[in-house]
Amino acid sequence: MPKLEELARKNMQGSVQTAKKSFDFDREEELGAVPKGKQAIVLRKLVKENDVYYDLRVFYWDKNENRFKPTSKGVMMTAEQFLEVRKLMGIN
Q: In DSSP terms, which residues pair with 48 in a beta bridge?
């Protein structure tokens, strides 16, 4: 699965930037991105103190800033909720 940075390279030439954090997380790890036209569906793992969250969100390409930015279309869930969603999909 490609990363957001790889999709950004397809939309521009030169330096690549991804969206800045909108929340103050201790750690943010992009797990993958699925292309959706000029948008991307991105799965990220976010850590705040000892709490782990998963964020599944649509990002759009901002032509003016040459980077992907998050939209409000998405969901952030706790690690426990993420495991429940995985179970619903038949993934252990």
A: 51
pLDDT band at residue 18, thresholds of 50, 70 and 90? low
List own/partner pairs for 38-47 with CB under 8 A and 24 or more apart: 38/11, 39/71, 40/4, 40/7, 40/68, 42/4, 42/68, 42/70, 46/76
Q: What is the 3-state secondary structure (H, E, C) of the chain?
A: CCCHHHHHHHHCCCCCECCCCCCCCCEEEEEEEEEECCEEEEEEEEEECCEEEEEEEEEEEECCCCEEEEEEEEEEEEHHHHHHHHHHCCCC
pLDDT one-digit tens code per residue, 68-81: 999 999 999 999 99
pTM: 0.75
